[in-house]
Write the structure tokens for this entry.
Amino acid sequence: MTLAEEFPTWAALLVSMLLLLGTSLSLTGSLGLLRLRNFYQRVHAPTLGATLGAGCLLFASMIFFSVLQTRPIVHEVLIAVFVTVTTPITLMVLVRAAVHRDRSEGNLDELDRSKTSNQSGR
Amino acid sequence: MNRWLPFPLLSACLLVMWLLLNQTLSAGQILLGGLLALLGGWLLTALQPATGRVRNPRAIVTLAFLVLIDIIRSNIAVAAIILVPRPRSVTSGFLNIPIDMRNRYGLAALACIITATPGTLWVQFNPRNGTLMIHVLDLVDEGIWIDTIKCRYERLLLEIFE
């Protein structure tokens, strides 16, 4: 296959390392959804995939296609920008909804206790 | 700015976005992108957004660099919390931080930064008394987190936007 022959070794190594790192981070984030205890802790986990995980994958894609086509390919930057700008909205809506539910059900003493103590855990 | 180009920065960003999407610098696409950028600026006037101005471009570079380092550091920290055998022992909780910034663009940027760093989460901002409530996954020392948000991010954001 011509593609594998033409692709330089250093770029192949770099791309595969970045891909491995990015996918491992995303997998770790998904694992966190399983392993962490309450909703507020679990919400933190997927941000691994949305930040450094996605960053590694996009960087790998940029290197791969730039080397393959021997010209700079950088439109992956747009994905990074839009992901960074839009994730806060989703997360805020989710967390505000959870806080609202917990407040109305009266089981959010940790919210009001947080002014004096840092202990959580329901 | 004026009637033809009410939001020069936004129009420039739209043009760059268009050229990046099309992966080209050909005259035709620049013309088309420029048209789109002008149209975008005019459409935005209908929304009447609050006027904002970037005062210190150099602080943006400093802030971007700091945030990048923090994102990498907190990614490692959160991954470590998830991968240790017993994640149940982690202490997480809500934290109230007094914020001096009132600029809407600055607050939006702060929200992006806090959300983009794993381990911290923007919960709500109360504009009346200026307290920001965040949720921290690994809340060992409140002082460190308040220090990070106030001295590392808010100081630079105040320099940029106010």
